[in-house]
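Appendix B. One record, verbatim.
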Amino acid sequence: MTPPPRFARLVLVTPDGAVVGALPALSITTPWWQDIAPVIEAVRVAHGIEVTVLRVLEIAANPKSVKVTYLAEVAEPVVAAEPWDGELDEQPLRNSYAKLGGPAADLAWARSVLAQKGLTPNGPPRQVRTWNLSSLWAVPVQGQTVWLKATPPFFAHEAPLIEALAGEAVPKLLGHGQGRILMAELPGKDLHEVEIDQLFPMVDLLVGIQAKWIGREAELFALGLPDWRGPALTEAITATFERTAPQLSTKNRGALTAFIADLPRRFADLAACGLPDTLVHGDFHPGNLRGDGAHLALMDWGDSGVGHPLLDSSAFLDRVPAEALDAVRAVWLARWREAVPGSDPARALTLLAPIAAARQAVVYRGFLDNIEPAEHPYHAADPADWLSRTAALVRAEPRPDSPR
C-alpha cells in the first residue's frame, strides 16, 4: 500500500553546530520517508541551496498526508530560513551517519578507498537515502557509479557476508569497514516492477546460494549472523509476543498463546520435512534484486540470518501476482526437492507460514530496541501488525481433527 503524500520541513544546521532555522514545508514527489534524493532536489529548486540530510526529527502522519521534519546540514546561513525554537538532543543509539559531520566522514572514507583502487570521483556524490537502517550515496567515477552504504551496528554482518559470498550474484565489494560498505555498480535497475517470467530466475538464484551453505552454519555465525533456528526463534517470538500483547486483540492473544505453546511440536514437524537450516536472506523480494535481463544480483544482506531456507518465501510470494503464484511456488518447491532429494518442501512451507510472520515481528522489535526514539514511527506498528498476521494464519490452518 502506498503511503500518503509527504511534505518535508528542514531544520538547518551549519557544520559548527549552529542552528540556522527551518525551511517551510515542501511537497515531495515520493511518499517514502527515507527517500532523501527528492527532498534535496525540492530544496535545491525552491531555495537554490545544497543540503545534506542527517536524520528525522519528527514525523506527523495522518491518513491524508504526512509531514516529516528532517535535520539537514548546510554550509552557511540561509536567508529563507524561519526561526525554529526546538532543541537538538543527543541519543546513545544515534547512528554515526545521522550525526553532524557523519556523512562527510563517510564520503572521505569512500574517496580514500577509491584512491587505493585508482578511481577518482568525476562528479558530486548524490545522497539517495537515510534512515535508521542505512545511509546510501551514489558516487560517480569513471565509467560507473559506485555505491556507499553506511549501516547501524546491528547490520555489521552485512559486509563480511557479502565478502564471503564473493563469486555469487551479489554486489562486488570495493572496500568495507567501520560500518561502511563501498560497492561497484551493478548492471540494470532495481526490480520492484518485474514481468512474471523474471520471478523464476530470482528463485533459482536464492536457492542456489542457500544450498551451498547447508552444513556451514558455524561459518555464518562467525560472520555475526543472527540465529533463527527453532530454539532461538521460539525464545525470540515468545519474548516479542509478551512485550506486544497489550497492543493485540483478545482473540489474537489467544491464538498466539496456543501457537507459541505448540512451537516445539511445529519445529519438530518442520525438521522431519528434511530441509536443513542454512543462510536466509531475510528480506527477499524483487525490489532487493537488480538486473538488466542478462545479469541478476541479490542485494541488501543486512537482514540475513541462519534458519530454515523457506523463511525467505513469504515476503517474496506476497508480492507475486495471483495468476503466477502457483507457478512460482511450484518452481520454488521443485528446486528444493532437487537440492535435497527426499525432502518435503511443500509441507515445510505450510508449517512455516505463521513462523515466518512471527519472525518479522521479532525483526521489527529488534529495530525498535536499537534505534533512537525519533525514528520509532518507521516501525512502531510493525510488531503488532505481524503478530496479528501470525494469529490470522494460525486460525486459518485446518484443525487436526478436521477433514482434509
